[in-house]
Write a structure and sequence with these properties.
Number of strands: 24
Largest sheet: 6 strands, antiparallel, barrel
Order of helices and strands: HEEEEEEEHHEEEEEEEEEEEEEEEEE
CATH topology of the largest domain: Elongation Factor Tu (Ef-tu), domain 3
Structural class: alpha+beta
Oligomer: single chain
Radius of gyration: 46 Å
Strand order of the largest sheet: 3-12-15-14-13-16
CATH class of the largest domain: Mainly Beta
Shape: rod-shaped
Distance between the termini: 68 Å
CATH architecture of the largest domain: Beta Barrel
Helix content: 25-40%
CATH superfamily of the largest domain: Efflux pump adaptor protein, beta barrel domain
Length: 383
């Protein structure tokens, strides 16, 4: 009577275990380590992209003037504050001129004395000339000796030479006066151009050396961006290319400009190319000098080439490439990349053809033996 019961228990266990094994296998194949990896794909297409180059720069001025005296001295007065707008020729300050003023006054007195000496010499020369002429006439009537006539001629010549020497001395003294007056004018701190005062390095009463800057003036209409670009991606950067500038203080207001020039010297330390970017229209209000700016330069159009999303690029065994969908399954193809755009598109110079289908995003790392499931999007990974 027990044999039927013994035979029924294994049958009951089989009825329970087999569905469980099936359920376990189903779960393992759907969500376990044997489950297919979700991927998104795209088809390679031929496109002509317009690559862009991104860089960081600072606001600078093309024309910057350092105003200071040409001789050492003490600042007498200074009437220029940071932020002042000045016109060309405005006198912004002056060095102490007391010593030069005294020398100029003394020179005027010396010139007056020289003028008097010239008048005296001219009177003496006129008298000597009249005397020489008189004795010349007396010589004709034998009223004077020839020796006396020669003496009067010599007196006339000496008097004329004295006039010439006095006049030359006056010319020299006036030249010295002009030099002193020019020195005095150079003691005036004058704005060379219309501009904006951005620095004041000293105050009245300060003694400074020759050539030391007292005031800095910039031309606010000559603003540009001193920009830096990565050397690796800066191929094609040249003067005349269109650029967009976004100042840090005006993040939502891009301003249009262009590349004025690329600098002949790169930064060997940071491995960056340097360029000057000018605005098509000067920003208003003017940004402070030194403000950071983001620069995007539009490079020339590229020829038709395979273009892919840069998210599809993988590195396998030290090679850069993409996973392609072949009839036999996944296949890794090494590729050679070209130019890229800021929106994530990149050219493929070698390794891919138009129409091939590649993996863009994957739930996890792929191998040639991976089972995949193509989906529209992967939450948290692919948009």
């Amino acid at each position: 009577m027990r044999w039927p019961q013994l035979r029924g228990k294994p049958m009951t266990l089989a009825v329970v275990i087999v569905p469980l094994l099936g359920l376990f296998t189903f779960v393992a194949l759907r969500s376990g380590p044997l489950a297919p990896i979700a991927v998104t794909t795209e088809t390679v297409t031929l496109q002509s992209i317009t690559p862009t180059l991104f860089g960081i720069g600072t606001v600078e001025t093309r024309y910057h003037y350092m105003i200071g005296p040409t001789t050492a001295g003490r600042i007498r007065w200074l009437d220029a504050q940071v932020g002042d707008v000045v016109a060309a020729g405005d006198v912004l300050g002056e060095m102490d001129t007391s010593e030069l003023d005294a020398r100029i006054s003394a020179q005027h007195a010396t010139i007056a004395s020289a003028d008097a000496r010239i008048q005296q010499a001219q009177a003496q020369a006129a008298f000597a000339t009249s005397q020489a002429d008189r004795y010349e006439q007396l010589l004709q009537t034998r009223g004077a000796s020839e020796e006396l006539v020669v003496s009067k001629r010599m007196e006339r010549d000496v008097a004329a030479a004295a006039v010439t020497a006095s006049q030359a001395e006056l010319v020299r003294l006036r030249a010295e006066l002009d030099s002193l007056q020019a020195q005095r004018e150079r003691l005036q701190l004058t704005a060379p151009v219309a501009g904006l005062v951005v620095e004041r390095h000293a105050d009245p009463g300060t003694t400074i050396v020759a050539g030391q800057a007292v005031i800095e003036v910039v031309d606010p209409t000559s603003l540009w961006i001193h920009a830096r670009f990565d050397q690796i991606s800066s191929q094609g950067l040249t003067a005349g290319l269109a650029a967009s500038v976004v100042l840090r203080s005006r993040g939502s207001l891009p301003m249009q400009g262009s590349v004025l020039r690329t600098e002949p010297l790169a930064d060997a330390v940071t491995e960056e190319m340097l360029a000057k970017i000018v605005f098509h229209a000067q920003p208003s209000p003017l940004p402070p000098l030194g403000e950071l700016a983001e620069v995007t330069v539009t490079l020339g159009d590229e020829p038709l080439l395979p273009v892919i999303d840069n998210a599809a690029i993988r590195h396998v065994n030290g090679q850069r490439g993409v996973w392609t969908l072949a009839d036999s399954g996944l296949k890794f193809l090494p590729i050679v990349l070209g130019r890229s755009t800021l929106d994530g598109k990149v050219q493929v110079l070698e390794g891919l053809n138009d129409g091939e289908r590649i993996v863009v995003y994957s739930e996890k790392a792929l191998t040639a033996d991976s089972r995949i499931q193509i989906v529209e999007a992967i939450p948290g990974i692919a948009p």
